[in-house]
Structures are given as structure tokens and as C-alpha cells.
Amino acid sequence: MLNNYRTYGENELLSLMARDDKAAFTELYDRFWKKLFVIAFNRIKDKQSAEDIVHDVFSGLWNNRTRSDIGQLENYLAVAVRYAVFSMIKKKARARKIEQHLAGSTVVEMPVETSLHYKKVLELVKTEVEHLPEKCRIIFKYSRDAGMPVKEIARQLNLSPKTVENQLGKAIRQLKLATRSFLQSFLTIMW
């Protein structure tokens, strides 16, 4: 059955994909993956990052299959890859700038009492994270402990990015509530 899709045009495949036809999506992926990878790799010179970008672009195509109105698919995908590459370059430049700034800044010694309070806050947060609902806790740990971006968490857990964002918001609200009274007393002591 998959062999039949090779004869289909891009618009036919997009139409089938909009009706949740995974084989049509696979055919589009097979047709364009190498070209898109070359575009990404030529700009960033990192195989893993190039693969991630292409995967993200195709994930976006699938996730928006019912909403997208694409005229020239190959051009659309190429522009999406270029945009993702520029976005990655921009993030890396921003991260380098922050690292350089932090490397040049001086370390401030904390008084022992402040350090103990800080440690207590960290323990409280860790305890509260463990009390979060399972999905919320897993998403929060992926985000904060593993440093994974929302899209990657969504892909890993087979969820929509919006669901991941909502769960992160829920976790942060619960943690703020749980630590609010402790932090207020801490700030009162400090000032």
C-alpha cells in the first residue's frame, strides 16, 4: 500500500495527511528529509542539531496537518528549516553571551544563615515537586532537571506542546503556593 503513495503528488499527500493518513506523511518525510537535512547541516555544521531541526519541522507539519494551507510544500519546508536554524543560532549566541557575562562576574559569598535558608527552600521545592500529579511532575522534571524544551518534552511524551506548557504552568503555580509562606518569612528575616 505504501508503494502507491510514491505516485501521488504533494497536494494529494497533504490532503490525505490532513485526514490522519500516516502513510502519506511518511511518503512526504521520505521525499524531503534528505534535502531538508542538507539545508540545516550546511548552515549549522552539526549533524544531531540538523536532524533535530528537520524532525521538529516535520512534527510541526504533522501537528498542524488539519490547519495548514500550503501551496508549495518543498518551499514551505525549506523556509521552516531555515527559520529553525536561525532560531537555533540566535539561542546559541544568546547562551554564549550569558555564559561570558557570568564568567566575568564576581561570586558573592552568602552568609551561613542565608545559605541555610536557601538550602531549606530547595528541599521544600523538591518535596513539593514529588507531590505534584504524575504527568505534571514528569514534565516539570524534564523541563527543569533535564533542561528539555517544551517541543522536545511534547515529542518525548507524545503530547501537544500546549499540554506541556499548561502542565508546567500548573506545576509552577503549585510550587509558588507551597513555598509562598516560607519565602515571606525568609524575606522578613533577611530584611
CATH topology of the largest domain: Rna Polymerase Sigma Factor, Chain: A
- The proportion of strand residues reads under 5%
Overall residue-averaged pLDDT value: 84
Number of domains: 2
Q: What is the tally of helical segments?
A: 8
Secondary-structure-derived class: mainly alpha
**Poorly predicted runs:** none
The CATH homologous superfamily name of the largest domain equals RNA polymerase sigma factor, region 2, helix turn helix motif
CATH level 1 class label of the largest domain:
Mainly Alpha
Principal-axes geometry comes out as elongated
Q: Oligomeric status of the shown chains?
A: single chain
Please compute the radius of gyration using only Cα atoms. Answer: 23 Å
Give the helices and strands as they follow along the chain.
HHHHHHHH
Biggest sheet, in brief? none
What is the helix fraction of residues, given as a range?
Answer: over 70%
CATH architecture of the largest domain: Orthogonal Bundle
Could you explain the architecture of this structure?
With 191 residues, the protein is mainly alpha-helical. The chain has two domains: 2-104, Rna Polymerase Sigma Factor, Chain: A (Orthogonal Bundle); 112-190, Arc Repressor Mutant, subunit A, CATH 1.10.10. Helix content is 78%, strand content 0%.
Topology record:
Elements: H1 10-18, H2 22-44, H3 47-63, H4 73-104, H5 112-130, H6 134-144, H7 150-157, H8 161-190
Helix pairs in contact: 1-2, 2-3, 2-4, 3-4, 5-8, 6-8, 7-8
